[in-house]
Structures are given as C-alpha cells and as structure tokens.
Protein 1
Amino acid sequence: MAERIYLDHAATTPIRQEVLEGMLPFLQGGYGNASSVHMEGRIARRAVEEARRRAARALGADPDEIFFTSGGTESDNWALNSTEGEVVTSCVEHHAVLHTCEALERTGRPVCYLPVDGSGRVSIQSAEEAVSGQTGIVSVMTANNEIGTLEPVRELAQIAHRHHALFHTDAVQAFGHIPVNVEEMNCDLLSLSAHKFGGPKGTGLLYVRRGTRFRRWVQGGEQERRMRAGTENVAGIVGMGLAMELAVRDMEADAAHMRRLRDRLEECILRALPDTLVNGAGAERLPGTLNVSFPGLQGESVLLRLDLAGIAASSGSACTAGSLDPSHVLLAIGRSRREAEASLRLTIGRENTEEEMDRTCSALTEIVPELRSMRA
Ligand code: PLP
C-alpha cells in the first residue's frame, strides 16, 4: 500500500526528530519540578530558562518578555482578557480570538469586527475609522489559518499605537513560514503554539512587550514571574524552544520548498478542474496553504474520499471539522454559502514531496468528477 500523504499541516505538524530527542530526557530521568531548589529542580529550571532564551532569540525579543502557556488558544485568551477598553479585531480571526471576544461582549465590553476584502485582507481604512481613544487593544492575526492570507500587521500596529491602544497578533500560523519579529511587527503581544511548527502539542507562549500593563492570568504559585501559575511543562517548553530555533534556521529553505509544491498542486488542480475557485488568491499568502472550492460539491465529501485514498486534508479549519456550518472566513471574503461548503484546505509541510502533490492532484481529478456525476 502506498504511504499516506499528510496535507493538514495547518491543523498540526509532525514533531521534529531533533525536538523529540531534546524533550526525551525530561520525560524520562529528568522529572524535576522547575520550582524545586534541589539539583533535579535546578536542572529543570535551567532547561526552561534556556528554552525561554531560544524562544526570545527566535522572535527578536528579550527572555523576560516570554510567558509559556498551554498553546495558542490560551495565549489569545490571555491577551484579550488582560486589557481594558474596546477591542478591535477582524471577522476572520481564529475562534480562539472570536469566541473570547464574544465572551467579552457578554460582560459589556465593546468589540468591533473589521471587514476584509475578497482575498481576506483587513482593510486599513476600516481600521483607521474604527480605532479611537476608547480602544484598549487591536488584535489581528498575522496569517489566516484557513486561507493563508497575510494581514497588514505593521500598519495596524501603527494605527493602534497612534491611539495609545495595544496591538496583539495571533502569529500561530505564521511562525516558521514568514519572518515573525516583534520589533519589525511592532506588536505588544503575540501568540504562538508549538505544534504548528514541529513542536509538541499543548505548549505555547505569549510575548508581552516589557512595560505593557497586563493582568495576571492563572492564580496560584509563583511560576512565569507570578503571571501564569502552574508547574511548568518542562518537556513541552524545552521542545518549543528547540522547535522555534529550528524553524527560524530552516525557514527560508522550507518556505521556498512549500511554495514550489503549493504552486505545483494549485496549477495542476486548475488545469484538471478549471472551475475550481482558489480562496485567498490575489493576496500574499502563506507559502504552504491552498484552499479551494469545488462548486456543486460538499468539501466534507471530497475530504472523506481523499482520506480513503490515503490523503489527509481538511475542510475549513480543524476546529470546525464535524460541524456543517460554513466557514466564517470564506463567507467574510464573499463566498456564497454553497461555495464555502464546497471548500477543501490542503496545507503543505517541509516533509512533503513533488510526487505527493502529483498523486493528490490525480486523486482529486478522479474524485471530483465522480462525486459530481453522483449528484447529477
Ligand atoms: N490561532 C490560530 C490562527 C490557529 O490556527 C490555532 C490552531 O488551529 C490556534 C490559534 C489555537 O492553537 P492551539 O489549538 O494550539 O491552542
């Protein structure tokens, strides 16, 4: 049987071998609690602080600006809950941001959702109009998890700062694919999740610019400089530090490889199935993301047939898989309900090959017309 082809890297990535090897000592013999004063504890503490330095270096930050969390979701929740005033965000954010905003609205905090254009880019003009002296935080993602569109974060940060508001960006999908540097982006808060770039699941971080006023998040012990309590996930944190270092080291080569494969797959699909819609086309996109709609079909049916053919893809974001609600991102870029329901997301990783793109294209070339003939 042919090897399976994994094309769902926006959902999660395989853990890198070097990362696993770096973590293993802390899952086997090195079980110390990083807060303990004995030698076992000191070994764990050293490893956590080394990972913090690695993470800081990868982002162009200082180690005391890095707070480890349980992932992107927690970091987004923390960022938005730790500030006051109106929230200005976009209508294409991940649910980790959107559902947090809805919860804030229920407590009486005003939230403004910025529109996007047909390729998923937030309009600068609408941000200029929305952000005011009442705004406490502007939160817009660096890159979209469904269609890959890159957002104009530097310009948005400038607008936020002009009104003395904070700027937060969810860079969960961007890191490792495009440069993510907190100085260049001029952000005050930034969220990452390790498993999106070869690290372990359940570990993330929130970057907080020194001097930013923000609230303690989890009450309890003294960990993370008393801002986020709970015994540190030492192995996870070590893995995250290593994965960040490797992602930055390999980014240029990996991004070029993924872009080549994505373009090859996109061209092949459009040649074989010319009525395919490419969602997010026309914008600057993440190099490994391809989101397409096959008009007349359910993305879910294509996904299931691909799975049977040995290919792992996604219809919309993994968090909404299983629910039949059309993607809020695709509706926001102007796709109809039917077009949104017909979508399939293929996200490429560093280990994919040209041959896998060709096999995927051939599989789609068979599956799509077959499903259409069954509907006719
Ligand atoms: N933000 C974005 C843009 C994401 O794509 C994801 C995961 O899909 C998250 C946040 C949440 O990350 P995690 O599930 O690791 O907490």
Protein 2
Amino acid sequence: MKTKYYYHIVTFGCQMNVHESEKLASICEKMGYALTENREDADLIIFNTCAIREGAEDRVFGNIGALKRMKKQNKDLIIAVCGCMTQKQQTADYMIKTFPFVDIVIGTFNLANFESYVEAVKHARLVKQKSRQLDLWNEGEIDESVPYLRTSGENAWVNIMQGCNNFCTYCIVPYVRGREKSRKKENILSEIREIVASGKYKKITLLGQNVNSYGKDLSPQVSFAQLLKEICAIEGDFKVWFMTSHPKDLTDEVIEVIAKEDKILKDIHLPAQSGNNRILTLMNRRYTREKYLGIIEKIRQLMPNCRITSDFIVGFPTETEEEFQDTFNLVKQVKFDSIFAFMYSPREGTVAAKMEGQIADEVKNRRVNELLNLEKKIQKEEGKK
Ligand code: 5AD
Ligand code: SF4
C-alpha cells in the first residue's frame, strides 16, 4: 500500500495565479500530500490556468491533453483544473467534454473548498460511483480562511484586491474575475505584520488587477496611498512593491508616497497599451497619450532613477501603421526600462473581439517584433550610459 502521496501544481499566467497556487499548495499539504516537481510521480495534479490570450489557453489545452496517458497508467491519479479558463462558461464546457479524465473543474472563487472536491472524488471512487466534481462561476467574497504556503523565496505576495471594473475592450479579466473587491485594510496589515515578523521575507509584493483603485469599495473608503503609508509604518527591514497600476487611477498622491517612503521600491509597472489616442479610446483606457506622458514626467521629476516598465498591445482592431508608429514613438520617447509587447488576441465575449477591422497575424507579428527590437536597442544604449 502506498503511504506517501504527492501533489504537483502547474501554474500559468500572472502573479495572481502564482499566489493562488500557494493557497492550493497549503490545502494539499494540509490533506497530507507532499510536493513533487515531477509530474510523473504525482497523485494529484492541478492546472491553474490563464485565459488572457489565446496562446495561453492553447498551452493549457496541450498540457491537459498530455495527461490522458498518465491517467491510463495510474487510475488513482486525480486531475484538477482551476483558474481563469474555468471561469468562462464556453471554455469550461469544452474542457469538460474534451477531457473526460479531468476529475475536478473549479472556478477561482471556489479554491478554499478544494479539499472537499478532492475528498468527494476519493469517496466516489471507493464506492465506485461517478466522481467528477464541477463547481464553476460563482462570484464570492474574498476568502480569508486559507493560509498561503509561500514559495517565492524572499518575496511574499500579498493580495490586496480582486477583480476589475474597467472593462478595457480587449480584456477578459473583468468577465472571469468579477467586480473589484478590496480586502479589508486591517486584514492586509495583519498579514504583512506576520510576514515581517517571520523574518523570512525581504520584499512584499501587493497584488491586484488595478491596485490604484484599492479601497474605493470599502466603507469607510481607504485610498491606495493611505494603505501604502500604513504598510510602510510597520517596523522591520522590508521593501514594498506592487502591481498592476492603471494610468487613469495613478494619482499624484500615490506617486508622492512612493517617492517619500524608503520602503517602497522605485519601480513602477504602468501599462500604456498604446501610444495613439484613437486606439486608447477604442480600448476604453480612459486616458490619453498626453496624460500618460504627464504621469511619466511627474514620476521622473520626483524620482529620476525610478524604474518604469510597461505593457503594449499591437494590432488592436483597425490600428493603422501610423497609429502603431505612435506607440513606437512613445516607447522611443519614454525609454522604458523594460516592456512586454503582445499581439492583440481576440477574446470571445469582449467588445473588441466583435469589432470590424481585425488585423492580420503577419502584421501583428511584424509590429510586435519592431517594438521589441526597439526596446532592445534602447536597453543597450541606456546600459552603455
Ligand atoms: N490580447 C493581447 N494582450 C492582452 N493583454 C490583456 N488582454 C489582451 C489581449 N486580449 C495584455 C495587456 C495587459 C497584459 C497583462 O496582457 O497588455 O496589460
Ligand atoms: Fe484587463 Fe483593463 Fe482590468 Fe487590466 S484594467 S485587468 S487590462 S480590464
């Protein structure tokens, strides 16, 4: 009889998923499973998925498909899929139909109940009944009940909010993660106090899809700037970083707090997405190129050495060559320390996916390469300085 059981988690996508996998890990350990880095040794395999672009989804499908063989070899293996892909009804339906060997399919709001799904699968197998556990979309409150098994070395992730209200027209996040909900300030502060007291972490990274709108849904309201100040007032030797900021909500007050507080890393990730005002409007970003440049100027005035990074999407529907050049010139002008550039990927159910004037893949590909080559050149030149 087997005495030791192993779990293996495969995480796709953003830091939020990485952090949520830490929650799943802690549940697995509580159930008595031990971590294995080797998929072949696992008795419980979890895929924490990402839906942001088609490429991310294809990778997940490929990985899940490859498990069929393992399930044949090990009838006791339990396979679970969670994360953003399962929050989309059509994708979840497709997954459930196409991969009958997947035992558990659950949404991002149900992670805290993970143990009960695993137990239900085990029990059903014992009594030789159908064991599939499906628990999809149900937009819930922020779970504070399950601790995290921190796995990112000296960095501790701290979730401060979930969801997004912005509905940028290309983005699937508001549909799969629901509306913005902030964690109570006291819960965040006590989590950070514990992290600092443990003495194991040097950096605390605050996570949220749109951290700058933290606290707007709380009563009484708390601003992100206020939260930052109170975190920095905690005694101890640690640094604070956060992501992601939205240019429309990054206030002067927040920039001033970053500049003033020694504990906050001078490193701001500020996705611009495009340098052209017509495209920014179509994207529903609610700022202009000029407003974006104004924020950069303010940051550099107060913190000349602040690292600034950004995200860009090229080939948004109807984007002309000249409009792409506006993005190109913005990158050239700002000289970011680093950028991510993505080819626009239509996401079913979003406004932009239905727009006319979708751009051919070859064009997107060329534009993305142009932007990345420019960035490489800038980094080289700045490096020389
Ligand atoms: N296509 C391409 N890139 C996207 N992003 C978000 N949605 C899409 C999409 N549909 C990019 C944005 C965002 C980053 C996390 O992913 O640049 O900032
Ligand atoms: Fe998506 Fe825009 Fe929300 Fe970011 S702010 S998660 S890009 S909708």
Protein 3
Amino acid sequence: MTHILTDLIKALTNGEVRVVDLTQPLGPDTPVIDLPPPFAPSPPLSKETISEYDDGGPAWYWNTIRLGEHTGTHFDAPVHWITGRDLPDNSTDTIPVAAFVGQACVIDVSAQVAKNPDFLLSSEDVLAWEAEHGRIPDGAWLLLRTGWSKRQGREAFLNPAEDGPHSPGFAVECARFLARDRGILGVGVETVGTDAGQAGTFDPPFPTHTFMHGAGKFGLTSLINLDQLPSTGAVVIAAPLKIVRGSGSPLRVLALAPAAR
Ligand code: 23J
Ligand code: MN
C-alpha cells in the first residue's frame, strides 16, 4: 500500500494535481489600504539595496525591505483586532501550524460584483451555496471570488470616492453568521481587506474583522487566481511569517487543485 503522500507526489508530477499561486506580486506599487485620517496609514513596501555584486558584496545581491504587516497578499491574525486581543494563540508566531493547511470553499459572486462594486455577501447566499455544494466543513477557508483581482492599478483596485472606497465584502449579519455558526478557518478575499470598502460606516464598523477575529478566525486578502479553483476540493497552504506577536504578515498563498478535465 502506498502512502497518500506518495500518491500526492505522483499526482503533482503527472499533472493530476496543479499548484495554483493565489499571491499578488509584492513590490513598491502593491496597493495598500488607505484609511481616512485620523487613522495612521500603513506604509507601502520600500526597498533598499544592501549590495548587488559590488563593493558591499562582490558576489551577492540582497535588499532591506520595510512594509506594513498588512501589505499585498497577506494574513490577518486574531490579535489584529481588539475583539481578538485576549484570545490564546492569536498572533502569527503562536497560531497552531495545522491551521495553515485547509480546504477551500469558493463562492463565486463575480457576476453580482460586475454590476455592483459594493456587493455584500449575505448568509442567504452562503446557505444557497451550501444547498448546492454541502455545508462548509470545519477547518475550511471560505474564499470569496469577486473578480476584483482583475482590476489593474491602485485606483481601480482601491476604487476610492468622496465617500470612501467602494469594494465588495460581507454583510454585517453574514460576518456574524460565519463567525458564530461555521467552523471555518476564516475568509479569503480578492480585495485589499476582508471588509467591504464601505465597512467603516457599518454597525459595527469593519464587521468581518470584528466578528471573525473575535471568534479566533483568520483573514486572507488580495488573493488572485480564485477563478482557477473548483468550488470545493482544493487545498490551501497559507503560512504567515513567524513574526513574534505579529498581527499578520505578507505570505505566499498556494492552492493544490485537481487539474481541469
Ligand atoms: C485596519 C483597519 C481597517 C482595515 C484593515 C486594517 C484591513 O483591511 C487589514 O488589512 O487588516 S479594513
Ligand atoms: Mn489585514
């Protein structure tokens, strides 16, 4: 009898299982959330060369980077929000690593979002998805496929207006429902944050952060290539940097998916 991992390696080698990159490129132009004053801004990535095959290092190239923990494709830990402040194992260095591998449930709302950038997922939408695909299992990521990652450039991606940014997310009641009534690891989104662009005006403000992190759940943001995943059956590998007391971190998010047949 072969071990399941032997079969996995075989499937990766023969193409039955594909590795899908769910990660945005991370550079100085990577869009970062723009919070209104008086809130402190998170800096974009900046980079300084330490040496590049020169006097500072004749045979080596390396850089110093500076960036907010929540830059680009990144992980949100429960300690990021005040509601998760006192939970055990709530930061990037203490979350049990088993949580960094989980299955994906992908809810496709790209058609709705194409018509309405402020689209909010409701618990009814989740229940309708479950009627088709089965109940979202414990330990699964709920990935919200909005098509938002196709928006190129900072303006289109952040979609700012006089009254703040406009981008899709979760309704207040849906965030509460997912946090309380489903055993998910967390939610993953294509937008800059797990909350909708207008969520600062919701009651409570930023309900996805508030309820999910209060329940010890996680977030993944600025994902790409969700359109390459099946509704169920993909495995997500998302391990943040082991930053001591980190509130989150940029990371490489990979999915293992069955090859399209
Ligand atoms: C701080 C305040 C509001 C939000 C965020 C951070 C994020 O989206 C984030 O990256 O965690 S909405
Ligand atoms: Mn974040």
